[in-house]
Amino acid sequence: MAVGGTATGARRPQAALFLIGCCAAGAGPHVLPLQQQLWPAIALTVLLGAYALRTVFLPLLSGPDASSGGSPEEAPVAPEGGWPAVDLVVAARDEQAVIGRLVERLVALRYPAERLRIWVVDDGSEDGTAAVLEACQRTVPQLQVLRRSRDAGGGKSGALNAVLPQLQGRWLLVLDADAQLQPDLLERLVGFAEQGSWSAVQLRKAVVNADQNLLTRAQAMEMALDAVIQQGRLRSGGVVELRGNGQLLQRQAVLGCEGFNEATVTDDLDLSFRLLVTGQPVAVLWNPPVQEEAVTSLAALWRQRQRWAEGGLQRFFDYWGQLTGPQLGAGVKLDLLSFFLLQYALPVMAVADLFTAALTRSAPVMWPLSFVAFGLSGGAILVGCRRRNEGPELPGMHPFNLALGIAYLGHWFVVIPYTSLRMALLPKRLVWAKTQHAGQEAAAVELAAEDTDLSTQVL
User: Fold this and answer.
1) Domains along the chain?
2) What's the CA gap between 335 and 341, in Å, rounded?
3) Cα-atom radius of gyration of the chain, to the nearest Å?
4) What is the pLDDT of residues 123-170, one digit of tens each?
5) Which residues contact 318 (CB under 8 A, 6 or more apart)?
6) Is 5 in contact with 261 (CB distance < 8 Å)?
7) Cα separation, 332 vs 323, whole angstroms
8) Between the CA of residue 50 and those of 44, 65, 266, 376, 412, what are the distances in Å?
9) Single pTM value for the model
10) Which of 42, 97, 179, 283 is the most buried (most CB within 10 A)?
């Protein structure tokens, strides 16, 4: 692996150690004297509660954040020296329903045409994607198409690596095939990145089909929550993570990380840590957002979130030595530790605590941490959904929606423990699963796991 990451073969024992450690932390307090059983949970509550206050609530007291994107009425100002060259990059497999629409939207972006090139990697499509792209090329001179075989391997990372040597722009904007962009997005995004001297900027992700059902509505709230926490982490000296769709990357920064990691199931999360350990700053932009479809069924959500959970744990395992080394400051390390405990360790500890309580017929002891989990979730949803928003309307903040958003986030308390157990016990496989886009703003259907793997590699 590049940038000194851990060999992928070490992930299985690392996952086992993580699982054992979290289970011990969740079950261990039950052996303490009754009056001391809550002490570990209270100590963690204080630590993670302070983190929640610092990342969500305290930034509200420090005034407006420049990363909100400014007013849409303000004309974007060209950077000194003029607008830099930008490559728009899309990895597409079987995207016949949406790829033509996306090309039209990319052409409609307000940006100097001579400074813009559009790249679509047709990653072994077996539907009509190739024919749609051929038709687009006849009318769109900026469009370049690179075709890979179905079994080329590497998933989305492999597709991006295939086109990377041919890019010449200062920036590349990576998009999913279902991305929807407002016309002034690229000017504002590049202007923000150049002004802040960022190496990468992640756009807030907004859900276009939030009103389709309760699940898509909850995902819209989750995306707002995620962007609020990301901005809070940035403003408090922490870490911002890329989210795949809508990530603007400085080409030289990506090359300095030796491209995209083909040995992970989440190229965006992995690249986030590669940029971090090589000292490349990353920001997040609230307005304008990149719009995308949310999955519409529980089965699709389950498959998607397993991949996200596995990729999230993989990058911590792979870069643990560098994350704890001297090159990162104490503030960044504290942010990473707090996030790791909240996102990954807490769900496993909570399940271990419940199982131990049931076996010993005693009361759970990790319940004080629920104040942090519910407080952070509810607070970030409230802040995000009440913020000035361009793009699809965010769900209104009334008791039902707030309760729905908080309850929905409980799925991580099932996904994380299950994925951790699977990573620790089963033979390691790299599986890149895709979401099939229906080409309608209110439709996103996940294909069956075995039928939609972009690539499977046994390690």
Assistant:
1) 2-64+327-458 (no CATH), 66-213+238-300 (3.90.550.10)
2) 10
3) 22
4) 888 889 999 999 999 999 989 999 999 888 888 999 999 999 999 999
5) 1, 5, 6, 8, 11, 264, 270, 273
6) yes
7) 9
8) 10, 21, 29, 10, 22
9) 0.88
10) 179
